């Protein structure tokens, strides 16, 4: 396949590369093989050959090719509640709205239509790779992976482990620590089998829900599994005062230290939120190569805090973007890029300078649309060790075709076109999506 048209891709946290007219050539394995620029000698011959073999896709004049987005934090079972009860504090929201919903996935027939719809919605919004929390139930978790295969999305799926009887309801918890670990290992094996049937691999993920939900025994067993199978790990870390306080009270340690002690902070770990991480925690994340899933919409509600993205990027801590459905109400990473930028501006220019920035964000540290685009593409790809997120030879052809969301009324630079796309694009403007070179929308 050869896609003809303008391309926009992130190269580093604060730069984008825009090309007005090129041919993005995709090989049979779904990788970008070559990029032919209008100025290259063989542009016309490559174009003609693709056209004659019916492999040329020419974008409309107002369409642009962007990398697909990578969502580092989605609670798939919470999709039916997107937008519900976000005014409640985190632990009350979990107990009253979220655990009762998640417990329903014991019934695979309940799970199927939800997961089918969610995967379609995320793809329709331009998201080609997703790191998912499932529930405690393996049959439903497998359905989520199958929905990803069916709709052509690169999924990372975790069986949620939560066995602490003090912090989880009886109707929704793993029966014991050993059961939580055993079911996680079973899920890993089931995913290995499932992958034999597909070229678009789905990855199992070790998923302790968060420190309060788990016993020390299950955390220990899950850490051992992460090392045994060399798999990614996901959890929540330092999202809220309550969570931070729980670790201090029960372990006399910080949240990050507890996870590290059990071998759960590796260079394949992605920790959601991290808004309350201190510099010692961040050094630990850097030493271990742990990535942060920045969930800017959700952080407005539950964390009530702003992740200091700009500082993290300067310190070279890995950061990507997550919707945190349904702690975040929107499946769109466009919306989350916007919120990331807007939240980062809240403490700009010394406004609210009486706040202690160490507690609630960093003053004078705004980020840009380009920074946000970097998080949603390159940052996410690095966090998951994937060669995707950029339009570049040797990278996976995970791509979205986006129509300019409004007309041009005057001469515009590519930078201006880019900013208008980031700030105004909605699902309707995402015209086509490819994952590993194959149609997904
Ligand atoms: N901490 C533990 N579980 C959850 C969850 O489902 N959502 C969020 N935002 N935080 C959590
Ligand atoms: Fe979450």
Automatic annotation (TrEMBL):
**Pathway in which this enzyme or protein is active:** Purine metabolism; guanine degradation; xanthine from guanine: step 1/1
Report domain Amidohydrolase-related positions. Answer: 64-438
Asked if the keyword Endoplasmic reticulum belongs to this entry, the reply reads no
GO:BP terms for this protein? guanine catabolic process
Instruction: Quote the catalytic activity from the record.
Output: guanine + H2O + H(+) = xanthine + NH4(+)
Q: Which family does it belong to?
A: Belongs to the metallo-dependent hydrolases superfamily. ATZ/TRZ family.
Q: What SUPFAM superfamilies does the record tag this protein with?
A: Composite domain of metallo-dependent hydrolases (SSF51338), Metallo-dependent hydrolases (SSF51556)
- Per the record, what is one GO cellular component? cytosol
Which GO MF terms does the UniProt record name? guanine deaminase activity; zinc ion binding
- Organism of origin is Lentilactobacillus kefiri (Lactobacillus kefiri)
Q: Which UniProt keywords apply?
A: Hydrolase, Metal-binding, Zinc
Q: What is its EC number?
A: 3.5.4.3
Class of enzymatic activity (EC top level): hydrolase
Instruction: Summarize the protein's role.
Output: Catalyzes the hydrolytic deamination of guanine, producing xanthine and ammonia.
Q: Mind telling me what this protein is named? A: Guanine deaminase
Instruction: Give the required cofactors.
Output: Zn(2+)
**Cofactor: binding comment:** Binds 1 zinc ion per subunit.
Q: Zinc among the record's keywords?
A: yes
């Amino acid at each position: 396949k050869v896609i003809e048209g303008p391309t926009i891709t992130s190269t580093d946290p604060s730069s984008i590369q825009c090309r007005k007219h090129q041919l993005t050539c995709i090989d049979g394995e779904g990788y970008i093989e070559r990029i032919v620029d209008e100025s290259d000698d063989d542009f016309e011959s490559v174009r003609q050959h693709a056209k004659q073999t019916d492999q040329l896709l020419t974008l409309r004049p107002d369409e642009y090719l962007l990398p697909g987005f990578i969502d580092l934090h989605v609670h798939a079972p919470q999709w039916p509640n997107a937008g519900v009860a976000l005014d409640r504090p985190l632990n009350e929201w979990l107990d009253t709205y979220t655990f009762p919903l998640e417990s329903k996935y014991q019934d695979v027939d309940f799970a199927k239509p939800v997961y089918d719809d969610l995967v379609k919605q995320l793809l329709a919004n331009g998201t080609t790779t997703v790191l998912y929390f499932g529930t405690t139930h393996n049959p439903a978790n497998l359905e989520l992976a199958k929905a990803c295969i069916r709709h052509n999305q690169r999924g990372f799926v975790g069986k949620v482990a939560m066995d602490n009887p003090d912090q989880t309801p009886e109707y929704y918890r793993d029966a014991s620590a050993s059961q939580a670990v055993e079911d996680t290992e079973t899920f890993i094996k089931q995913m290995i089998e499932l992958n034999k049937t597909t070229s678009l691999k789905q990855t199992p993920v070790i998923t302790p829900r968060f420190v309060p939900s788990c016993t020390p025994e299950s955390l220990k067993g899950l850490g051992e599994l992460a090392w045994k199978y060399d798999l990614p790990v996901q959890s929540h870390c330092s999202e809220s005062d309550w969570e931070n306080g729980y670790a201090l009270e029960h372990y006399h340690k910080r949240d990050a230290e507890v996870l590290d002690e059990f071998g759960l902070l590796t260079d394949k770990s992605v920790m959601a939120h991290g808004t309350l991480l201190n510099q010692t925690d961040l050094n630990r994340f850097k030493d271990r190569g742990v990535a942060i899933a920045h969930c800017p919409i959700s952080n407005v509600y539950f964390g009530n805090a702003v992740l200091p993205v700009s500082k993290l990027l300067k310190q070279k801590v890995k950061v990507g973007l997550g919707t945190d459905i349904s702690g975040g109400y929107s499946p769109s990473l466009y919306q989350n890029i916007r919120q990331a930028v807007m939240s980062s501006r809240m403490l700009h220019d010394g406004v609210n300078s009486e706040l202690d920035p160490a507690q609630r964000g960093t003053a004078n540290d705004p980020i840009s649309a380009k920074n946000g685009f970097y998080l949603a593409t390159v940052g996410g790809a690095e966090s998951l060790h994937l060669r995707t997120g950029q339009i570049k030879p040797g990278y996976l052809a995970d791509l979205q075709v986006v129509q300019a969301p409004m007309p041009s009324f005057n001469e515009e630079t590519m930078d201006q076109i880019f900013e208008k796309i980031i700030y105004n694009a909605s699902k309707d403007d995402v015209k086509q999506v490819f994952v590993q070179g194959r149609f997904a929308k």
